[in-house]
């Protein structure tokens, strides 16, 4: 799920401005599980991290990013919080999508080849 959200963020950044997208590649879009369910299912601080390079207020940049997010059946809504955090609330379909992925990958689910040479 994190990977799909990172792809949505990358698409939004690319849609905003080519130089901003290049900066985003240098700063990996970190999407993390929210500690508090009231703050959504996942959150990112990408607007805070890119604000200086974009010469923009972090909250204003977060608003631009959210407005540029492509539609996804996995995301119910994205909200801006605090100084420029973006909180993602998953749609009910996201859970079904993830369950289908677990079933499809069976014992391989959750395993990655990252770091295996």
UniProtKB/TrEMBL annotation:
Q: Name one GO molecular function term.
A: ATP binding
GO terms, biological process: arginyl-tRNA aminoacylation
Enzyme type, top EC level: ligase
Key word ATP-binding present: yes
GO CC terms in record: cytoplasm
Mention any Pfam family matching this sequence.
Arg_tRNA_synt_N
Q: Keywords of this protein's UniProt record, alphabetized?
A: Aminoacyl-tRNA synthetase, ATP-binding, Cytoplasm, Ligase, Nucleotide-binding, Protein biosynthesis
What InterPro entries would the database entry show? Arg-tRNA-ligase, Arg-tRNA-synth_N, Arg-tRNA-synth_N_sf
Which SMART domains does this chain map to?
Arg_tRNA_synt_N (SM01016)
Is Nucleus one of the keywords UniProt gives this record?
Answer: no
- What's the EC number here? 6.1.1.19
**Arginyl tRNA synthetase N-terminal domain location, by residue?**
3-90
**Protein name, as recorded:** Arginyl-tRNA synthetase
What is the organism field in this record?
mine drainage metagenome
Q: What is the lineage of its organism?
A: unclassified sequences, metagenomes, ecological metagenomes
């Amino acid at each position: 799920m994190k990977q799909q959200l990172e792809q949505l963020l990358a698409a939004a950044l690319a849609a905003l401005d080519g130089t901003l997208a290049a900066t985003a590649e240098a700063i990996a879009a970190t999407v993390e599980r929210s500690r508090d369910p009231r703050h959504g299912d996942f959150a990112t601080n990408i607007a805070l991290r890119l604000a200086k390079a974009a010469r923009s207020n972090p909250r204003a940049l977060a608003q631009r990013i959210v407005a540029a997010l492509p539609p996804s059946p996995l995301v119910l809504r994205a909200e801006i919080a605090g100084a420029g955090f973006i909180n993602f609330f998953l749609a009910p379909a996201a859970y079904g999508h993830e369950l289908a992925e677990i079933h499809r990958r069976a014992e391989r689910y959750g395993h990655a080849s990252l770091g295996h040479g």
